[in-house]
Write a structure and sequence with these properties.
InterPro entries: Peptide/Ni-bd, SBP_5, SBP_5_dom. Helices cover 29% and strands 21% of the residues.
Length: 567
């Protein structure tokens, strides 16, 4: 049995953290509710490190406030604007990216870490190498300790890094794109690629590509406590963590030495709740000024209080779909897949599940992407046609197993109800459907064991970039078969070639043409049936100003303020 040694320093640090991080569920102090803003959101998948969060799940808003990235996406376009990076250049062969970093950026001063220096290239090299699983600059033991048979610490880190999963970066195979990340000087980083890849910078602007403090990691590593990096966060963002009460709320306070314009609101309370109806009730009771992921069936109540409340909607970079498992012989039959598609009334799903806060998806790439188009302006070759579906399917005497993840997601707020509607439609077409409710852990175990014996499964994808590569590759490429992102287990070499061809072009128009070709192949082969593209929704008090939401659901608290004289 392996027993980890708890050092005296580690014990003191843990003891010091108890007042800040507790398992209790205290009330939010009244002084904070009077001098701050409360944001109600869901608690599922909460993490202080989005890098380790499941790809395709709803990203929580907290990390957007704590950390910065090298780049930000500009005005929902294909263009990027520097953040921690000040500028960059790409070599003529497209294989080397040189990033020039911003100077004078301070890390948070917290009870658990006091930085001795500002942000620099070491932080970028460490943060990127960590998700790549590469060795990084952690100190070695001295010679006498090595003679005792002790491993070098950077080898220990490497072993731990290989065990830690970074689902988003794994899904896009980032370690097969980036060969090395090195510091040329304290404020210059060089990223060497295996091959030209036009999507790299958009990945570095995603919600997952946050920058850690290398100095903080060194401190934790010296105490054999590197796991704390993901539990007690230290970043460069406009807000830092003050308190976290598990599954209850997070208190953020303003970063007084933030490198950009100081945020107007000093205290932010993130109220965590798994219940959509409960969040709406809190909002109406003025227990929170902003609420995310409200119960869309009750949004009509806002119309009765139009002067007090405002609704912010944004087209989302997301897709809900039904996947056909190509490991099952029946699902390899294109005629069956197309018949099933024609049997399903997707318009009724939009009405009964999303209450018209989503649109029927007739394409794979959402319209908000720079390579997307308005799906409502296009017909779908296998749209609802119950008569044709029955003609194709009823004499086959099919019995299919459909798995349903029993968790709500933004792209599917009611998966069980959606499964019932689909089962009803397929039953009318002559198909017997057995619905099985499963957990995410069960699904991942079946995928690891290569025993996922479903015919159909409800799935979806939430992208954190407007680049189509980060949308299509994780859910449809050969490299992600038997993983939780590619639930259809579909693999097409011609599709791969189109995606790869799109990456070597620096022309946005040329890339868009290739992605449209790839999309046409998917819609023809139909490994997944696109169902819905969902709008992101926030509701807020009318006295809150500066509420803006990205297609990824993020909101910048640093831009928020209250109307003068109001709270």
């Amino acid at each position: 049995m392996f027993i980890r040694k708890v050092t005296f320093i580690g014990f003191l640090l843990f003891s010091a953290m108890l007042p800040f991080f507790s398992w209790a569920a205290p009330r939010v102090p009244e002084i904070l509710t009077q001098n701050g803003l409360i944001y109600c959101t869901h608690s599922s998948g909460f993490s202080f490190n989005p890098q380790t969060a499941d790809a395709g799940t709803s990203m929580n808003v907290i990390t957007e406030q704590i950390y910065n990235k090298l780049f930000e996406i500009k005005n929902n376009s294909s263009r990027l604007e520097p953040s921690l990076a000040q500028s960059y250049k790409i070599s003529e062969d497209g294989k080397t990216i040189t990033v020039y970093l911003r100077k004078g950026v301070e890390f948070h001063h917290t009870p658990w870490f006091t930085p001795s220096r500002n942000f620099n290239a070491d932080d970028v090299v460490y943060s990127l190498n960590r998700v790549l699983g590469h060795n990084t600059s952690l100190p070695e033991f001295n010679a006498s300790e090595q003679q005792k048979g002790m491993k070098r610490q950077y080898n220990i880190f490497h072993e731990l890094a290989k065990k830690t999963r970074f689902p988003y970066f794994d899904s896009i195979k980032l370690n097969q794109k980036i060969e090395s990340v090195t510091a040329l000087d304290p404020y210059t980083v060089q990223i060497n690629l295996f091959a030209p890849d036009a999507s790299i910078l958009s990945h570095l602007a995603s919600q997952y590509a946050i920058i850690f403090s290398h100095e903080y990691a060194l401190q934790l590593n010296a105490d054999d406590n590197l796991a704390q990096l993901d539990l007690l966060p230290v970043g460069t963002g406009p807000y830092q963590v003050k308190n976290y009460f598990r599954n209850q709320y997070v208190r953020l306070i303003r970063h007084e030495n933030y490198w950009k314009k100081e945020a107007e609101i000093k205290n932010i309370i993130i109220d965590l709740s798994p219940d959509r109806t409960g969040r709406l009730a809190k909002f109406f009771n003025n227990e929170c000024q902003i609420a995310a992921f409200p119960d869309v069936s009750q949004l009509g109540l806002l119309q009765e209080n139009g002067e007090r409340f405002q609704t912010t909607l944004s087209d989302g970079m997301n897709l809900a779909f039904l996947a056909f498992n190509f490991k099952r012989p029946l699902m390899q039959d294109a005629e069956i897949r197309r018949g099933i598609a024609q049997a399903i009334n997707r318009h009724r799903i939009i009405k009964d599940i999303y209450y018209n806060t989503a649109s029927v998806a007739n394409k794979i790439i959402p319209s908000v992407s720079w390579a997307g188009s308005d799906s409502n302006n296009h017909s779908f070759a296998y749209d609802y046609d119950p008569a044709q579906a029955k003609k194709v399917l009823q004499d086959r005497q099919l019995s299919l197993d459909m798995w349903v993840l029993k968790e709500e997601q933004l792209y599917n707020p009611s998966p069980i109800k959606m499964a019932e509607l689909i089962k009803h439609d397929l039953t009318k077409a002559g198909i017997e459907v057995k619905v099985r409710l499963i957990s995410r852990n069960f699904l991942m175990e079946q995928l690891r064991n290569n025993s996922e014996n479903y015919d159909l499964i409800l799935g979806g994808w939430l992208a954190v970039s407007l680049d189509p590569d980060s949308f299509m590759r994780p859910i449809l490429s050969c490299g992600t078969t038997s993983e939780i992102t590619n639930l259809s287990n579909w693999c097409s070499q011609s599709f791969e070639e189109i995606l790869d061809r799109a990456l070597i072009s620096n022309s946005t128009n040329e890339r868009a043409v290739n992605y449209h070709l790839a999309e046409q192949e998917v819609l023809s082969e139909l490994p997944i049936l696109p169902i819905a593209s969902v709008k992101r929704i926030l509701i807020s008090n009318s006295n809150v100003q500066g509420v803006e939401m990205s297609p990824f659901g993020s909101i910048s608290f640093e831009k928020l303020s209250f109307k003068k004289g109001e709270k």
